[in-house]
């Protein structure tokens, strides 16, 4: 069977969650393979509106197995809270339906503390962290100094491991940042309160994935953030600390031998960005505020206003190539309905020269947008459900983008609801 991935093409916040929620009816398993609780997937369906940060977006379909893979930063405290909120809205989370890889590592309280301490030290040079502990977590994971979820099943070993980590981590907390030290008992108490309830969900999920593949079941791999936030190919250093590319999905899911045939890249009909770093297409002032309000562009995790601007074709082409996208889902087309004219960023101008190529990160600070203006349609399209329902100007806009990024646009979203989609 053909396995697939749903990934972000730009800076994140493209609308991946609504696409996973929509398309999971075609799959048997959904896997989150990287990232942590530092970004959100907003899902609107018949059960309500949800801002998911760690739970896979397939949890709303009880027949689908949902897995947090070994590449995910599992924040037990926030995950437990999220699970409780979802269950209170009538979405059951049984161990047969939701699973956590025994090889996934846990975000500990000191990871969030160190994140905030480092951002404070950097001051006006900060990276724009959400302070969820993601960078310190992945740094510790690379140093092989994290606790894996499976260790919760072996209490004596866990205590010894925590003692070793506390001794090591206190050197950084106290000597580098002058922060208070922690204790083994404090960490074990935190684990008992927030990690112990997750023990029934911890499984050898690599085996689950292999068995699903052998049984001919279809697996969907769900990414967090977008290509421009990828640790290796993103706008360094304003990236996340994991690999958000589809190519990492086999490793981050625990099924490195899997072959992914379909890569659906999600692109917003305009650009949005949370956090610091270069954002060539950015609008400011009243122009930005009008787009921000039209699109409700506020972070699902932080609530902070997103930076916004017209669609950036230079960055989008780069993201399509980096993700190896085989098709595109264009989201929030309806948001642009208020505009008389719709700018698109066609090229960059750097030191007087124009280019279609996405540059090395250092050069982005000097990049200026070169825009093309397309006509708007000035009518509500949120009720459109077929391609022919769209006004011609809206269809022309989609076709223009499709040609510019050289990847077929198969889905056009005209609203947040599950059914507000046009299939081409």
Quick summary of this structure?
This protein is of the alpha/beta class. It is built from twelve helices and 19 strands.
Question: What sort of overall outline do the alpha carbons produce when their principal axes are compared?
Answer: globular
How much of the sequence lies in strands comes to 15-25%
Strand line-up in the sheet with most strands = 9-7-5-2-10-1-11-14-18-19
Q: What's the Cα radius of gyration?
A: 22 Å
**Biggest sheet, open or closed, and with what strands and sense?**
10 strands, mixed
Given the structure, what is the number of helices?
12
Q: Low-confidence spans: pLDDT under 50, at least 5 residues?
A: none
Helix proportion range: 25-40%
Number of strands: 19
Give the integer mean of the pLDDT values: 92
Q: Class by helix and strand content?
A: alpha/beta
Distance between the termini: 23 Å
Describe the structure.
- It is a single chain.
- The protein has helices at 16-23, 76-88, 109-122, 134-142, 155-176, 184-195, 205-214, 249-253, 285-295, 313-323, 361-364, 392-405, and strands at residues 3-8, 29-32, 41-45, 48-52, 65-68, 73-74, 98-101, 105-106, 202-203, 219-226, 260-268, 271-273, 307-309, 327-331, 341-350, 353-355, 367-375, 409-413, 421-423.
- With 424 residues, the chain is of the alpha/beta class.
- The strands form 5 sheets. The protein has a 10-stranded mixed beta sheet, sandwiched between helices. Strands 16-15-17 form a 3-stranded antiparallel beta sheet.
- α3 (109-122) crosses α4.
- The mean pLDDT is 92.
């Amino acid at each position: 069977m053909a396995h697939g991935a749903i990934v972000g093409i730009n800076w994140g916040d493209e609308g991946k969650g609504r696409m996973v929620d929509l398309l999971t009816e075609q799959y048997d398993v959904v896997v989150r393979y990287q990232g942590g609780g530092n970004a959100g997937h907003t899902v609107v369906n018949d059960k309500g509106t949800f801002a998911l940060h760690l739970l896979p977006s397939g949890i709303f379909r009880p027949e689908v197995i949902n897995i947090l893979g070994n590449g995910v930063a599992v924040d037990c405290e926030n995950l437990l809270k999220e699970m409780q909120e979802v269950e209170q809205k009538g979405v059951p989370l049984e161990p047969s339906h939701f699973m956590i890889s025994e090889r996934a590592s846990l975000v500990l309280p000191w990871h969030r503390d160190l994140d905030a301490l480092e951002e404070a030290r950097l001051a006006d040079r900060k990276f724009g962290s959400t302070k969820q502990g993601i960078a310190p977590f992945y740094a510790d994971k690379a140093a092989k100094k994290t606790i894996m979820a499976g260790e919760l099943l072996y209490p004596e070993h866990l205590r010894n491991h925590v003692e070793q980590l506390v001794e090591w981590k206190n050197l950084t907390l106290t000597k580098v940042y002058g922060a208070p030290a922690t204790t083994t008992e404090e960490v074990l108490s935190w684990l008992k309160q927030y990690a112990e309830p997750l023990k029934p969900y911890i499984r050898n999920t690599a085996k689950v994935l292999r068995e699903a593949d052998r049984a001919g079941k279809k697996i969907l791999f769900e990414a967090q953030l977008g290509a421009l936030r990828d640790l290796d190919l993103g706008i360094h250093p304003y990236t996340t600390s994991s690999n958000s590319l589809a190519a990492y999905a086999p490793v981050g899911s625990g099924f490195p031998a899997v072959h992914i045939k379909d890569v659906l890249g999600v692109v917003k009909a305009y650009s949005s960005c949370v956090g610091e770093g270069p954002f060539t297409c950015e609008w400011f002032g009243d122009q930005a505020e009008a787009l921000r309000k039209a699109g409700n562009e506020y972070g699902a995790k932080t609530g902070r206003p997103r930076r916004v601007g017209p669609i950036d074709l230079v960055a989008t082409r780069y993201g399509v190539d980096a993700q190896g996208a085989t098709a595109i889902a264009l989201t929030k087309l309806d948001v642009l309905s208020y505009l008389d004219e719709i700018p698109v960023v066609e090229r960059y101008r750097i030191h007087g020269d124009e280019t279609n190529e996405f540059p090395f990160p250092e050069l982005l600070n000097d990049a200026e947008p070169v825009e093309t203006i397309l006509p708007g349609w000035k009518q509500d399209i949120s009720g459109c459900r077929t391609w022919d329902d769209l006004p011609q100007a809206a269809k022309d806009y989609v076709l223009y983008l499709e040609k510019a990024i050289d990847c077929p646009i198969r889905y056009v979203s005209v609203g947040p609801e599950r059914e507000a989609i046009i299939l081409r």
